[in-house]
Amino acid sequence: MNKAAVCTIGDELLIGQVTDTNSPYIAKELNRLGIKVDTMVSIADDTGAILACLKKLTEKYRIVIVTGGLGPTRDDITKKALGILTGSGSTYIHQGQLSVIHELLASRGISLEGKNHDQASVPDTASVIVNRRGTAPCMVFDMHGASASILYSLPGVPYEVEGLMPDVSDDIVKRLRLGRICHETMLTFGIAESTLADMIEDWEQKLPEGFRLAYLPDPIKGVRLRLSVYDSENYEDCMKKIRAEFSKLVPVLGNAIYGFGDETSLQTVIGHILSSNRKTLSVAESCTGGTVSSLITSVPGASRFFYGGVVSYHNKVKADTLNVPEHIIARYGAVSRECAEAMALGVMKAIGTDYSVATTGIAGPGGGSADKPVGTVWIAVAFPDNGKTGIKSQCFRFNSDRTSNIRRFSATALNMLRLVLPAGQVQAL
Amino acid sequence: MNKAAVCTIGDELLIGQVTDTNSPYIAKELNRLGIKVDTMVSIADDTGAILACLKKLTEKYRIVIVTGGLGPTRDDITKKALGILTGSGSTYIHQGQLSVIHELLASRGISLEGKNHDQASVPDTASVIVNRRGTAPCMVFDMHGASASILYSLPGVPYEVEGLMPDVSDDIVKRLRLGRICHETMLTFGIAESTLADMIEDWEQKLPEGFRLAYLPDPIKGVRLRLSVYDSENYEDCMKKIRAEFSKLVPVLGNAIYGFGDETSLQTVIGHILSSNRKTLSVAESCTGGTVSSLITSVPGASRFFYGGVVSYHNKVKADTLNVPEHIIARYGAVSRECAEAMALGVMKAIGTDYSVATTGIAGPGGGSADKPVGTVWIAVAFPDNGKTGIKSQCFRFNSDRTSNIRRFSATALNMLRLVLPAGQVQAL
């Protein structure tokens, strides 16, 4: 099996100021090609460290992908180190990248200066994949060593990495003879990871040879189960077998299962069901402060079904804009079944939608009490029910910091909503 | 100088399903102690890979922090590998961790079973730092090797890593004699990274010996400049010098500068100014779909000044809830100065606040036109102005994918808001 290493260069990574999102992105893309990433390493903007690391990686791995250390405010340390590593004697200007540099700077109203022009200059040992989203080109080096390693050097900006990876992938496919990894991801929400593990333990033990299961908990997506088969003989057969295995979990996990696929999430499933059923949605949020709305609108096409929402952070907004009766807040408090339901019905009426969801709770760190500690949330969903309006509400208690609580409240709200949608329960394969 | 390596174990990292947030978090904490992280590496849940990697790291680095590979659904591969690496002959049950396990399971209504009880069992070569947020203890190994390496093995769950790091830091401080890294971060918003670099080039060339500058662009925070001095003689003197250097940039960068500090962001600055001035804020969002509100409410204490907002995703919500006159949308369109200003004034009146900000634009990928391409946004801010209500609006054009556009629209909206706040401009040191 072809193995790869991903190396991310940048002092900003090592001081913890920037989180490395390039490595997981690149790993996902390589996986699609059937290439397994064996290691990911982050190193300093330092010629010695770069040389030592890349020398080791190219001796061991067929594909080495490096990001960072390139760009107009850097000293182009990476480029120089790669020149040394590959025994380059001179440089050349890549005309294709130079044209892109001209265009990009012109569109930003910046004139071409030395430091930007130099970005089109690459070692003579490199071929180039043009970067259309930035000024630094992607350089490709055939290491001609015992491991027949190919090294791809990309800029560090994630948006540019994402723009380059399709061409990098094509290049890898051309150079290597690749098998295909078969995998499928099943998404569940509502069962804790360790409980889920117990429930599927039998099934896991009985998986066929070569089937590898990964548990992938995610604060918004829930617990994802990913079945992978490396070195499959026949892709279609293999995918059928994977799906057959997942089908066995439907009677076990019931409506905790909500979808399949790497790009699937509660919000994409909700969006898909509402759009295809031509139904509309509104949201009333208190403690989640806009997060539920932002998750829903993060999916392209949200305007097909999402009309909008009200962030009723202050109680007077609950009363004035959502028409939550003052006596309800006075009697039961803002964090109550009664208030959550009034908010859901209020926004549904105020905005005029088929469905609505409301959240009201205490994200923390302040605001908790003995009755209603930090992490308490009431969630209500309103839905069409045989010509009337149905309402469901539930209280949840989480035990975490503000950011995590807000995320969990929001994900749980999305899950309650999908459970009342047509076909929101138990996605059969 | 004491150097460290961070090793994160987990197949889910290598398949790109999970982004490594532990490494940057740990690096920030180590930096505070004056320890420089030299490398960060992610490896597979594989005994051989773990042994090889940790052997190399402990031979080279004084401090090695490892996360992952522990927990009730794992095979505890990391624990076994560490036992082998340290020549452990037996295991013992750590009573402190066992008590925590009991408590945690009881509070979740789960009974203690074999797999959870075993988590309190550690190699006899390990000492333990109790994990109060999860079942797996942090194990500490004195490697007794030539490099006098100390290895800390933590669970992989970020929330648990954050809970353990204070105790891990204390333990490191006790064992090592530590110098202090001096650093300060200045935050700017509104000037592109490469333009900023040109503007401060002179200043950068003239920085004193030992002063290291890092450019840290962030989609929400803007461009951060971080000055660091390693191996300082006197911490207070050094910090004074760093601040003096930053002061020289005030006449150069003007009101692009908005704050200082690692935890500072546009939303914390806005929150601080509004709270201390006892002013209130509301938000009207279209294309940003709740993101501006969620950024504001991500900061504890937001309820002191933030009343709420309206996500007017559909035009009828702009008309009905925000009272944007229908003729404005008909004549100028939703993405226009007139609509943005009407939304800002509308939400300010509907909710009743001193300040408001509104966004209306096209995040993409669909919805663009020749006049108003994807990435266009109008942002308006309404504010108290000598007894009347002032209004400012501006159009911006970005050129990115949906997620990035939404983020940039939101950050730019926060920046426009802070520029109209008292003392929102030019934070002098």
Would you summarize the structure shown here?
Two copies of one chain form a homodimer. With 429 residues, chain A is α/β, with parallel strands linked by helices. Chain A is built from 17 helices and 17 strands.
Structure description:
- 2 copies of one chain form a homodimer.
- The first copy, chain A, has 429 residues and is an alpha/beta fold.
- Helix content of chain A is 39%, strand content 24%.
- Chain A contains 17 helices and 17 strands.
- Chain A has helices at 11-14, 22-32, 47-60, 77-85, 95-107, 114-117, 158-175, 193-199, 201-205, 235-247, 250-253, 266-276, 291-297, 315-320, 326-332, 337-352, 402-420; strands at residues 3-9, 36-43, 63-67, 91-93, 121-123, 127-129, 138-142, 150-154, 182-188, 211-218, 222-229, 257-260, 281-285, 306-311, 355-361, 376-385, 388-397.
- Chain A has a 6-stranded mixed beta sheet with strand order 2-1-3-8-7-6, with helices on both faces.
- In chain A, a hairpin with a 7-residue loop joins strand 7 (138-142) and strand 8 (150-154).
- In chain A, helix 3 (47-60) packs across helix 4 (77-85) and helix 12 packs parallel to helix 17.
- The longest helix of chain A is centred in the C-terminal third of the chain and has 19 residues, at 402-420.
- The radius of gyration of chain A is 26 Å and the shape is globular.
- The relative contact order of chain A is 0.08.
- At the A-B interface, helix 1, helix 2, strand 2, helix 8 and strand 10 of A face helix 1, helix 2, strand 2, helix 8 and strand 10 of B.
